[in-house]
Amino acid sequence: MSAPSSNQPSRSGTPRLKDVVLSVMHFKHETESEAHQIFRQSAGHGVKHALPQTINPDEETVPGIEHPGSTGVIYCSDRAMANGFTYAASHEWSNLGQGAPEVGEIPNAPPRLTSIPLPTDSLEYAPTTGVKELRAAVANLYNHTYRQGKASQYTHENVCIVPGGRAGLSRVAAVIGDVYTSYQVPDYTAYDQILSSFKRLVPVPTALDPKTKYKLDIAQTKKDIQTQGLAVILASNPRNPTGQVIKGNDLKELVALGREGTTVILDEFYSWYIYPENDKDFGQSVSSAEYIEDVNSDSVVIIDGLTKNWRLPGFRVCWVIGPKNLITALSQSGSFLDGGANHPMQLAAIPLLEPSRVAVEKEALQRHFKAKRDHVLKRLHDMKLDVDIPPTSTFYIWLNLERLPSPINNGLTFFEELLKENTIVIPGIFFDINPAHRRNLFNSPCHGFIRISFGPPLEDLDRGMDAFERVLKKARKDTKSFGHSYKKSIDGNLEGQI
Questions:
Q1: Burial profile 284-303: b = 16 or more Cβ within 10 angstroms, e = fewer
Q2: Are strands 423-424 and 396-400 parallel, antiparallel or unpaired?
Q3: CATH number at residue 177
Q4: Are 164 and 41 found together in one domain?
Q5: What is the spatial distance between Cα 373 and Cα 397, in angstroms, rounded to a whole number?
Q6: d(CA 395, CA 63)
Q7: Closest-CA residue to 161 (of 60, 303, 257)
Q8: How far apart are CA 452 and CA 445, in angstroms?
Q9: CB 184 within 8 A of CB 158
Q10: Is the pLDDT of residue 24 over 50?
Q11: What's the whole-number mean pLDDT along residues 31-38?
Q12: What range(s) does the Aminotransferase class I/classII large domain occupy (predicted)?
């Protein structure tokens, strides 16, 4: 019997010679890295509009179907399942990738709901704009929090209830015409799929600079509107994944663009996750609603909901706020896109928006999550993994890995190594909104980063930080075991190894 080829895995499981050689190389292109090839071979993540002979045949099973690509969380969950993760045994893993807050009791917060009434009427379809009483409760909360003393006030006619934030984005995208749409890099991973799927939105990127703490340059944005004809600006604020926030005069100037012929769409799902330095500032939040002059003429669209701030992602109850004529359009797009939000859950949400209850919930959340943020930052500091730009908002840490030894100095490879340690994070390249997927991943400004969520409970965070320590300990000894031998699928299929 002949000895195994240097390009074949040995029967003992010892890494192939080719793997070891590759693992100590300083990769410069995605074709040299196994982690990057796994990503590219996943349906929807190849280069768009490639020549027919280069298209992944797995995407051609149904004529006319084009895979949009999965969001970062879905891709990472699938890769984790290939490495043994199951939701039934999730306590054995640390999931620092899921963009969700812990949903249980936290100190000094109102009690969690344990039951939901089901009146007979709630078994009917809800209106595509949502239950009127909930829409009115949303309007009242925003008026109470951000618009006291202003002549123009929101009413239920300015609110559309939607079944989740992505549904809200999709409804809005479906009613936007053929326009240039500005977005920033890095930003929320789902924008990639929105801009890919709704072809009438012509994507125009702006790369945010870490040297300015990923701050959006409003003056440059105004120039871009004039010179490039931008009609829509899409952004998360506070920003996922960098944990930074536009507020004060900067937010006021951004909102003012909505009175100058540009529509501003702001994803404000983390508006409560603000971490003040002074104790007296706890309980404050940020929203563009504070700076809107006329709620029916300023072209500013706000998307938010129960998912993050109320820590109720399972409710799938969110909202879009804007001028009345926008809400009419969203009702029409919702009628064919999603059919509306869950009726009983909408009714259950109404008392949760009572302003005095919200005030207690908001302060408890900020104190609890700030403590978790500081705990994770301290653990990373102890590992000499200091965060370049610590988050002042959201529950994410945008961690630069570029100072680590190759090949774990990029997000995709570090992610794969953490999977071996039962820990999930999100590689930074998912926040490089790049609808055509053409760029060499190594050239992405997000390539050297991962996003860490400190949304989960503290014990999960510590389990994940322990995994970080194990990977770094192995890296100090040698890196020959890194960069290869990754499981390709749940059944262990190793086809296509480089």
A1: ebbbbbbbbeebeebbbbbb
A2: unpaired
A3: 3.40.640.10
A4: no
A5: 8
A6: 41
A7: 303
A8: 17
A9: no
A10: no
A11: 84
A12: 95-467
Dist CA 445 CA 368 (whole Å): 32
CB 110 within 8 A of CB 356: no
Tokens 């359009």, residue located = 329
Range with lowest mean pLDDT among 256-270, 296-310, 428-442? 428-442
Q: Are residues 196 and 154 in the same domain?
A: yes
Tokens for 490, please give them. Answer: 């749940």
- Do residues 239 and 308 both lie within one domain? yes
Query: Is residue 226 in some structural domain?
Result: yes
Amino acid identity of residue 312, one-letter, is: L
Domain that holds residue 208: 120-358
Whether residue 303 sits in one domain with residue 172 = yes
Give the model's confidence band at 68: pLDDT under 50 very low, under 70 low, under 90 confident, else very high. low
Total tally of structural domains belonging to the chain: 2
Indicate whether 422 and 353 sit together in one domain: no
> Distance (Å, rounded) from C-alpha 159 to C-alpha 129?
8
Asked if the structure places residue 103 within a domain, the reply is no
At 404, give phi and psi (nearest 5°). -80, 160
Q: Looking at the domain assignment, is residue 177 inside a domain?
A: yes
* Mean pLDDT within 194-199: 88
pLDDT 10s digits, 232-248: 999 999 999 999 999 99
Q: How does pLDDT run across 134-146, given as a tens digit for each residue?
A: 999 999 999 999 9
pLDDT tens digits, residue range 202-220?
999 999 999 999 999 999 9
**Amino acid 207: pLDDT:** 94
Mean pLDDT score of the chain:
89
pTM of the model: 0.88
90 and 149 share one domain: no
| DSSP three-state, residue 213 | coil
Going from the C-alpha of 354 to that of each of 363, 382, 479, the distances in angstroms are: 15, 42, 55
For 141, list phi and psi in degrees, rounded to 5: -65, -45
The per-residue pLDDT for range 461-472, each reduced to its tens digit, is 999 999 999 999
Contacts (Cβ under 8 Å, ≥6 apart) of 202: 178, 179, 180, 181
My answer on whether 134 and 184 are in the same domain is yes
User: Tokens 């996750």, residue?
Assistant: 273
